Amino acid sequence: AKRCGWMGDIYLLPPTWTVGGNGTERVVYMAPRPGPSPFGVNGSLDAWKESIGVLARGNSRLCFALSVATVPPLLRPLGMDSIGVHFVGSSSSGKTTVGEVAASMWGGGPDGYLISWRATSNGLEGVAHSRSDALLVLDELGQVDAKQADDTVYMLGNGVGKQRAGDSGHARITQNWLVCFLSTGELGLEAKLREVGMRPKAGQEVRMIEIPADTGCFG
After folding, report:
1. What percentage of the chain carries pLDDT values higher than 90?
2. Cβ(82)–Cβ(177) under 8 Å?
3. In what order do the strands lie in the sheet with 180-185?
4. Whole-angstrom Cα distance, residue 132 to residue 144?
5. Nearest 5°: CA angle at 138, between 137 and 144?
6. Residue 165's CB: how many other CB atoms inside 10 A?
7. 2 pLDDT band (50/70/90 cuts)?
8. Which string of DSSP letters, residue by residue, matches the chain?
9. In 3D, which of 80, 69, 96 has the Cα closest to residue 214?
């Protein structure tokens, strides 16, 4: 396997965790450029419930983010497309905490799990490919160039990277993915695009749903 997620009826998370299958096949993760896995196990489910889960009670945003975090492995079996949710709010409204809590369900390697929107669109292609059938968390939309944000929302929602030519002129194999992404930012996509005189398209508003991060009673 050159990406995580579903390979037939086997679900894989690098470097070696798998579930499903008939027990006669072994799936080996062999990424083109192997690096530290973003996934990981730390502590126990009971400890997570006591230290994180219990604090989400009564907080609609945290409960929703945790629900979003369970969605990615279900997209492919249900024949659904990639989808994103963007939590928007001012500083100290709890939006980054929402992303971190959702990420806690997927682990976190030595480099952490949250990805900055500031990464280039080419870089985010690789990240999306490495989180296929898993959760992608993008932090702080305001740090990215508006035009790049415009392109990236479409790219993530469409589930396929740019077509490029190799050194010989022949087309390279494009990267593809199916991903559920959770985003945060002080600005929504419409406000971000207005910085450069653009307006969001209907397709983008379907691909990335915006939710106010501020509940009025949690920070």
Report:
1. 36
2. yes
3. 115-116, 135-139, 180-185, 83-88, 208-212
4. 22
5. 170
6. 9
7. confident
8. --SSEEETTEEEETTTEEEES-SS-------SS----S----S-HHHHHHHTGGGGTT-HHHHHHHHHHTSHHHHTTTTPPPEEEEEE--TTSSHHHHHHHHHTTT--BTTBS-EETTS-HHHHHHHHHHTTTSEEEEE-GGGS-HHHHHHHHHHHHHTB----B-TTSSBPPPPB---EEEEEESS-HHHHHHTTT----HHHHHHEEEEES--SS--
9. 96
- Tokens 């968390």: give the residue: 137
Cis peptide before 15 (omega within 30 of 0): yes
Q: What is the mean pLDDT of residues 98-107?
A: 91
Give 11-67 pLDDT, tens digit per residue: 999 888 899 988 788 888 887 665 677 888 888 999 999 999 999 999 999 999 999
Tens of pLDDT, residue by residue over 128-169, are: 888 999 999 999 888 888 888 888 888 888 887 654 444 554
To which residue do tokens 């929107």 refer? 117
Cα 166 to Cα 152: distance, rounded to the nearest angstrom: 22
- Give the amino acid at 6: W
